[in-house]
Amino acid sequence: MKPGNKTKRIEGVLAPVITPFGKDYAPDAARFVRHCRWLLRSGCAGLAVFGTNSEANSMSVAEKRALLEALIAGGIPGASLMPGTGHCALSDSIELTRAAVELGCAGVLMLPPFYYKGVSDEGLYRHFSEVIERVGDERLQLYLYHIPPVAQVGITLGLIERLLAKYPGIVAGAKDSSGDWNNTRAMLEGFAKDGFDVFPGSEVFLLEGLRHGAKGCITATGNINPGPIANVYRQWRSADADRLQAGISATRKVVQKQPMIPALKSAVAHFGNDPAWRTCRPPLVELTGAQEEALITELKSIGFSMPGLAA
Amino acid sequence: MKPGNKTKRIEGVLAPVITPFGKDYAPDAARFVRHCRWLLRSGCAGLAVFGTNSEANSMSVAEKRALLEALIAGGIPGASLMPGTGHCALSDSIELTRAAVELGCAGVLMLPPFYYKGVSDEGLYRHFSEVIERVGDERLQLYLYHIPPVAQVGITLGLIERLLAKYPGIVAGAKDSSGDWNNTRAMLEGFAKDGFDVFPGSEVFLLEGLRHGAKGCITATGNINPGPIANVYRQWRSADADRLQAGISATRKVVQKQPMIPALKSAVAHFGNDPAWRTCRPPLVELTGAQEEALITELKSIGFSMPGLAA
Q1: Which of A52, A89, A283 lies nearest to residue B127, judging by beta carbons?
Q2: At what angle do helices A61-73 and A29-41 cross, to 10 degrees?
Q3: Pairing of strands A197-200, A108-110
Q4: What is the structure's pLDDT at A273?
């Protein structure tokens, strides 16, 4: 292992940042940097760029590396970045993880390889282990990304235990997007005491998570509602916490009536007065006019806004 | 579209060629070329390199491109090649498809983007359409790869119809690995008359497929049993066809008692006296000693052999 000093671990609310594309479906680095700045100004502690909600799996390693370099060049601190670096291909995961460490990112959030289904924990252990060994850098802080509804391949408690025992300090935590609170609680009860930082994958579990030792959350709607979600994080010990939690859960409920990723893009396009944001890279498609109208109307009816977004 | 002459379409038995890896998990080009030569000598009409059985999704675009160049440099005719070029990332699919066309491959076999689940036919249409337009080369012959048990995202009849209407000549056919004969038959009945070449994804459906207008098959076990499978293809109109089919189906049945990809590798390692073949790239793992022994014992008991494989 190449020696190096780890960045302070991120705690709080992270957004899996949506990625803007041009009409030719090329990633739009300038718009991406602007949205990241707004998120940090608005309460996000960190940016989980290249997540599921980022359409990251529709981009090549080279495209993602270029966006990461644009963020750093644009003044976004590496200490706030937790890019997704997990791919089907071992070599791709190694390449982007190494780039993230060298660019000074605080951590990386790694999907398991997700093409082959029904793979063994031994195979997944070898995959993560090989990435860690090949990157070979003590600065690496790796968060495991458990999202069985999409990836189908999940991260079991047994796999976490084995990786954590072998790579303490490097294996830093997990995002749990199972949507199953019992699984999140089991991760917390099993490993939080060993310095394993757990982030529920939705703000719906933020308050409950914090009460059980979670370090924050990494949530899709962090892209559009960062202020109120960060407020729950800041005030979770206050008497008002349950009321604040109910507010952000209500907003989430409205957004997830539509397909999540295009809905987030429509919201940013509408409230930021920036129609280019609507484009999704295939295989995803933008909302229909009727879907967007339903979304915006209902968001407005609950008093939703995105302060400071419009230029 | 850049004008160009298409290669004659491949008909017959294709193997989704297994990929050898070194102890460091790097692709082993020399061993790969040797196995491809043996397959063509032994009856395969074509090589569907970079398929599911090739662990292709565990390799980067650069690794696959290097292997493809090694095949061409090693004298494997482009006219026999149908590499898999479908990735989650639009940009990756474009890059490898373009490389395949430029290297003179007869066709490409394209997975749909498979990370996001429940995507619309409109989104998949845009993905394939964008690849075709960006490659922009009349030499392209694209085969759609339908393998819902693994990719989860499938190719519907409606999507085929739309792509075939827009890109006749370029959209050349499909591999159907659904394992559902009714689906294969529906593809044949719907589109074979329009020059859409259908290949069942297992030799179990070879004879039935040929009787309904299929052009051959693309099958995992083509890696180890190419002679007898090609013999069914050659003799399917003979009185002996059903007996020959029963023979290859029996071999298949033995192999699929074990995890398919490591089982194919164990068979090549054993019968080719070449232990290096056993290595699988994570997340896949090799067979245990007991699994391999069960496989080899049962294969021998039915008189299985791999003539000409051992050096």
Answers
A1: A283
A2: 50
A3: unpaired
A4: 97
Pairing of strands A142-146, A171-176: parallel
ipTM given for this complex: 0.96
Q: How many CB atoms lie within 10 A of CB B41?
A: 13
- Strand pairing partners for A14? A46, A218
Q: What are the tens digits of pLDDT across the range A231-286?
A: 999 999 999 999 999 999 999 999 999 999 999 999 999 999 999 999 999 999 99
Q: What percent of chain A has a predicted confidence (pLDDT) above 90?
A: 99
Q: Which residue numbers in chain A have pLDDT < 70? A: none
Question: What residues have CB less than 8 Å from B223, skipping those under 6 apart?
Answer: B15, B16, B17, B18, B35, B39, B53, B264, B267, B268
Q: In Å, how far are A153, A169, A201 from A149, measured between CA atoms?
A: 9, 28, 12
φ/ψ (deg, to 5) at B303: 80, 20
pLDDT of residue A311: 74
Chain B residue numbers with beta carbons less than 8 Å from the beta carbon of A90 are 25, 58-59, 281-282
Set of chain B residues whose Cβ sits within 8 Å of the Cβ of A284: 116, 119, 123
Q: What is the pLDDT of residue A206?
A: 98
Average the pLDDT over B188-209 and give the result.
Answer: 97
Distances from the Cα of B35 to the Cαs of A253, B20, B196, in angstroms?
A: 55, 9, 29
pLDDT at residue B311 above 80?
A: no
Asked if B148 and B178 touch (Cβ cutoff 8 Å), the reply is yes
Contact A283 B119 (CB under 8 A): yes
The partner residue sitting opposite B282, judged by closest CB among A60, A90, A149, is A90
List chain A residues with CB under 8 Å of B149. 117
Question: Which DSSP state fits B160?
Answer: H
- The percentage of residues in chain B with a pLDDT greater than 90, rounded to a whole number, is 99
3-state secondary structure of B50: coil
Question: Quick one: tokens of B32?
Answer: 């790969």
Distance set, CA A3 to CA A141, A204, B59, B178, B310 (Å): 13, 39, 29, 49, 47
What's the rounded mean pLDDT across residues B3-22?
A: 96
